[in-house]
């Protein structure tokens, strides 16, 4: 897996960034608006840097670079609101190079002396249409029925008029202008169609750069502007939407990266991913600039403030191709109706989302295990929660060395790398073995391995590793919720060094089944709340422990547990006394990193299956309708977004790329998408989705109920949004 650029790409990106910082400053953007939204000097400078030659084949005197390289330029152009039809010109010069016969025009375009753009619609059907850069372009490449033509646009045909963002768009009567046929037939039309697909990717990346710049501007302001005596960035009504938006912005970029990776790999879903990348980025940009203006308040409405430029460009750039919702519908047809797309040659793509050979090997081993050992009757009782625990299968997994994949080999684990562990979790989900027993037991085992005494490892860890004991988590309390560091369950050290545990824990899921609980206790009531805590392993079968069931509408049992004079030895303490915060942070980080993409994907597969079964009026099935295809495509985009955000968290941890709250982003973002999509898919398939009948309907029904818990356990979305806002955007702390 790789999220890094090559050294050459970093140098190229930085070169364009420096140039655009100087030549596309907000003062220059404003100046360009006075002359129709085009900066001729900027255009010439970009040409001198080779911008317009990037995607032109070398045999046509271009640079022959990949689409990913051009995307880096577009991200910087979006960040700086470059004044000119850059994405369209990159596609047009490539088409000129591929189709040939216009060497003089191509040379002029590469040198910045001529502007060539593209028309988005067939001019045989829409002779008069809006064209990006139409106000300054001397030529437009367009489809005309069965041919690709070059339309010459004289100056008198370019009529300026007020537009939303004062960009250089114009409505041109292309059908009335001179046109030269560049090529005709299927191959020519496929090349032009591929150019439009390339434009979608370039536009998605430009909008990602624009969105990040606008959000950064708003976050910086929120960290320095005060209202009511405090920084406005401490107001969660401002900071929490920013946390959502940074996840969306990163997802928009990663979806474009995924589309290019899929094209390079020949994946069948690549065409749909291209359409979804453009649709997703347009939506994220619109939501981002709206919130940025809101953050600035009244000053954001004025033309004096730069944020309004971002707001208007966020809409003006993608809308030249029409309604972005059309891309969602198009993606739906490509995914579920077999519609084909002509895709560009993207060249080298440095990013890689493949988890590797070790990952594939462990997945095959897991699937083989379930095929060999698990009966249909056992599968019937699988469940996402502790209710699905099967001690026989768990023991068999331990014996097959498939239970503790992340733990080091010297403690009895498999010692797999993070990517293989991620792949293994997906394989377990595919098999339906998604209950948390192994994950929690592994987490607790890791904490014992890192912080436990030799006595604890000998008496407890050894049993866990042998499959003879399992563990649960005792973090939350009735009055604390997600604020686990406010714990009041008390541990008092006795004269002989042992500890007495007294208090109550809430949401101790699995306590009715497990042998031990990892518990956070207050050991110094006078210390600051983060410093007066200590972690322990507490036996749940000990005298003084009472477990009381609490049942949820998710078909899941959790528990409230009571501890009355429960005695444990000091050797069952984890870490130093009153240093439980550090131990707790380690365990929470393990809990936060994965996200819920796996269950989202399973939910989508069940929704597709149900849509294939549900009849509609007039004949046919629900899956054949435009509304179903679009809404399934939206969920598909969100599944990809969740996967990519989680992969990024995985990758940054492996390579030590810093902590931008990537783990909380993966957990919060995926859980929120899970609950949104589960609600929508329940609506889409109603009333069939109301049933708890065996099969897809029951699975979708359960997914809706399950999704509610994912935004709460492991830390609520609100807590994670605060962490993301603080670590990912530099906003002031919003929690006391």
TrEMBL record:
Domain Acyl-CoA oxidase/dehydrogenase middle, first and last residues per copy: 473-552
One term of GO molecular function: oxidoreductase activity
Superkingdom field: Bacteria
Acyl-CoA dehydrogenase/oxidase C-terminal domain segment(s): 202-325, 598-727
Catalytic EC class: oxidoreductase
EC number per UniProt: 1.-.-.-
Keyword vocabulary terms for this entry: FAD, Flavoprotein, Oxidoreductase
Cofactor(s) demanded: FAD
Signal peptide stretch: none
SUPFAM superfamilies on file: Acyl-CoA dehydrogenase C-terminal domain-like, Acyl-CoA dehydrogenase NM domain-like
Domain Acyl-CoA dehydrogenase/oxidase N-terminal: 6-86, 357-468
Pfam family, one: Acyl-CoA_dh_1
Family, similarity comment: Belongs to the acyl-CoA dehydrogenase family.
Name of the protein described by the UniProt record: Acyl-CoA dehydrogenase family protein
């Amino acid at each position: 897996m790789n999220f890094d650029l090559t050294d050459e790409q970093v140098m190229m990106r930085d070169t364009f960034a420096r140039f655009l910082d100087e030549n596309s400053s907000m003062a220059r953007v404003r100046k360009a608006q006075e002359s129709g939204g085009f900066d001729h000097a900027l255009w010439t400078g970009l040409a001198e840097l080779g911008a317009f030659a990037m995607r032109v084949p070398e045999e046509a005197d271009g640079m022959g670079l990949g689409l990913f390289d051009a995307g880096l330029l577009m991200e910087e152009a979006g960040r700086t609101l470059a004044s000119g039809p850059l994405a369209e010109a990159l596609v047009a010069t490539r088409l000129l190079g591929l189709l040939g016969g216009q060497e003089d025009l191509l040379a002029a375009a590469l040198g910045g002396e001529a502007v060539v753009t593209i028309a988005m619609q067939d001019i045989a059907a829409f002779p008069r249409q809006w064209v990006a850069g139409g106000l300054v372009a001397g030529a437009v490449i367009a489809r005309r029925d069965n041919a690709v033509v070059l339309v010459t646009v004289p100056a008198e045909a370019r009529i300026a008029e007020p537009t939303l963002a004062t960009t250089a768009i114009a409505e041109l009567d292309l059908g009335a202008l001179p046109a030269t046929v560049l090529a005709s037939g299927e191959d020519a039309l496929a090349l032009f169609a591929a150019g439009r697909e390339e434009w979608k990717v370039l536009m998605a990346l430009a909008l990602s750069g624009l969105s990040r710049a606008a959000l950064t501007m708003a976050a910086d302001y929120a960290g320095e502007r005060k209202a009511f005596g405090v920084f406005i960035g401490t107001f969660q009504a401002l900071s929490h939407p920013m946390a959502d938006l940074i996840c969306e912005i990163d997802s928009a970029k990663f979806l474009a990266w995924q589309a290019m990776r899929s094209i390079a790999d020949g994946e069948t879903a690549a065409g749909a991913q291209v359409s979804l990348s453009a649709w997703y980025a347009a939506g994220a940009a619109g939501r981002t600039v709206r919130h940025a203006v809101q953050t600035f308040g009244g000053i954001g409405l004025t033309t004096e403030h730069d944020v309004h430029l971002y707001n208007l460009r966020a809409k003006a750039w993608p809308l030249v191709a029409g309604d972005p919702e059309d891309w969602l519908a198009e993606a739906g047809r490509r995914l579920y109706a077999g519609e084909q797309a002509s895709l560009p040659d993207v060249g080298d793509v440095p990013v890689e989302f493949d988890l590797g050979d070790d990952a594939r090997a462990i997945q095959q081993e897991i699937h083989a295990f379930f095929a060999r050992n698990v009966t249909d009757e056992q599968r019937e009782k699988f469940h996402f929660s502790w209710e699905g625990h099967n001690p026989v299968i768990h023991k068999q997994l331990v014996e097959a060395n498939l239970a503790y994949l992340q733990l080091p080999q010297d403690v009895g684990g498999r010692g797999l790398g993070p990517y293989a562990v991620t792949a293994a979790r997906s394989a377990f989900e595919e098999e339906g073995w998604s209950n948390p027993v192994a994950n929690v037991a592994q987490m607790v085992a890791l904490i014992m391995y890192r912080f436990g005494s030799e006595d604890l490892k000998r008496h407890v860890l050894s049993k866990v590793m042998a499959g003879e004991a399992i563990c649960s988590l005792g973090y939350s309390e009735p009055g604390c919720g997600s604020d686990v560091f406010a714990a009041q369950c008390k541990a008092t050290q006795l004269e002989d060094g042992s500890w007495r545990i007294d208090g109550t824990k809430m949401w101790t899921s699995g306590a009715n089944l497990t042998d031990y609980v990892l518990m956070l206790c207050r050991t110094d009531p006078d210390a600051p709340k983060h410093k007066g805590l200590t972690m322990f392993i507490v036996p749940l079968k000990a005298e003084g422990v009472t477990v009381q069931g609490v049942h949820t509408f998710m078909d899941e049992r959790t528990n409230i547990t009571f501890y009355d004079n429960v005695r444990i030895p000091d050797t069952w303490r984890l870490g130093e006394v009153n240093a439980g915060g550090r131990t707790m942070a380690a365990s929470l980080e393990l809990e936060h990193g994965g996200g819920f993409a796996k269950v989202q994907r399973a939910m989508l597969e069940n929704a597709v299956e149900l849509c294939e079964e549900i009849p509609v009026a007039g004949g046919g099935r629900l899956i054949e309708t435009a509304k179903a295809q679009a809404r399934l495509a939206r969920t598909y985009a969100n599944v990809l977004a969740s996967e990519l955000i989680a992969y990024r968290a995985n990758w940054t941890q492996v390579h030590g790329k810093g902590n931008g709250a990537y783990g909380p982003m993966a957990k919060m973002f995926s859980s929120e998408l899970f609950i949104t999509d589960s609600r929508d898919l329940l609506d889409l398939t109603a009333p069939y989705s109301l049933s708890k009948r065996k099969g897809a309907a029951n699975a979708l029904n359960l997914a809706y109920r399950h999704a509610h818990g994912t935004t709460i356990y492991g830390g609520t979305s609100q807590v994670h949004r605060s962490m993301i806002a603080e670590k990912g955007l530099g906003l002031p702390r919003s929690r006391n």
